[in-house]
Amino acid sequence: MRLAGFYLFALGVALLPILFPDNYFVIVVGASAGLHVILAVGLNLLMGYAGQISLGHAAFFGMGAYASAILTTRFGWPSLLALAAGLLATGALAWLFARPILRLRGHYLAMATLGFGVIVHVILVQATQWTGGPDGLSGIPALNLLGWRVDGDEQWYGVIMAAMLLVVWLTLNLVDSQVGRALRAVHGSEFAAQMMGVDTGRAKTQVFVISALFAAFAGSLFAHQQAFVSPDSFNLTVSVELVTMVVLGGLASTFGAVCGAIALTLLQQGLVVFEDYEMLIHGALLMAVMIFMPQGLFVGLSQAARRVRHRLKRRQPLPST
């Protein structure tokens, strides 16, 4: 069923540019939603499946973005090599950070990850020689994929959607693997998981690093797509938005994270027309969803669809004899 849902989702992604050709909103907002999906799916592995709270996920997003930006603009590295170096550096730092911090639980873990995000943001602002400081870093070259220069909106839509589908596919396989079962055991009861022979420290470290790598991957794509990065794109507000996407879509559900990321991206774009009332309507809608669909949009809509199908079956006349 998960693979069937993935193939259906991939088909919809591929058909969008065909059904809406030359539609700026679909292409540009779709690419933005794709980046948010990568971030939300990775964070959902950490929060939804492993049960570990993170309020500093935007830090890894920014590390991937600035690694690609600095290496390509300051040192003239090829974009793919800069992307790989950013992933390697982010993964190593995430592993070092995970070993001590994941011993914490609950709000202590949340505060520690929040502090990590603040530290990274301060470094991005203060290290003006490398990052450009508050003004950011511009002139980032286009992504070059083995001689193919990605510099148009349609091309970026294809690249980001391909990357998004790859991340979703990897996540679905990871969840169904031994690692995924260990993460669910840790979420249910860490003590019980240890009694069953699960190395809980290793499992939490692995998912933390994977989640960070997904975020850094999205950050590198973001930097090359925008050709500009600034610390404001990776602050605490972005981390809170990512958590909102995961909770809004539904914890411990890969397609829930996908649904939450797309829904919040479209909501932010649609509310721009309301200007001064944007945040008020935004908050009211989120509250309504969490009140009437506490398990998230994906689970809530799935349950509503099942109830409708059940009622329709009950109304069908009995076959005549």
TrEMBL record:
A single GO cellular-component term on record: plasma membrane
Name listed for the protein in its UniProt record: Inner-membrane translocator
InterPro entries: ABC_transp_permease, LivM-like
Cell location: Cell inner membrane
PANTHER family reported in the protein's UniProt record: BRANCHED AMINO ACID TRANSPORT SYSTEM PERMEASE (PTHR30482:SF18), HIGH-AFFINITY BRANCHED-CHAIN AMINO ACID TRANSPORT SYSTEM PERMEASE (PTHR30482)
Pfam assignment, any one: BPD_transp_2
Keyword check for Ribonucleoprotein: no
Domain of life of the source: Bacteria
Transmembrane segments: 25-46, 53-71, 77-96, 108-127, 156-175, 243-267, 279-301
Residues in the signal sequence: none
Membrane disposition: Multi-pass membrane protein
Gene Ontology MF terms in the entry: branched-chain amino acid transmembrane transporter activity
Keywords: Cell membrane, Membrane, Transmembrane, Transmembrane helix
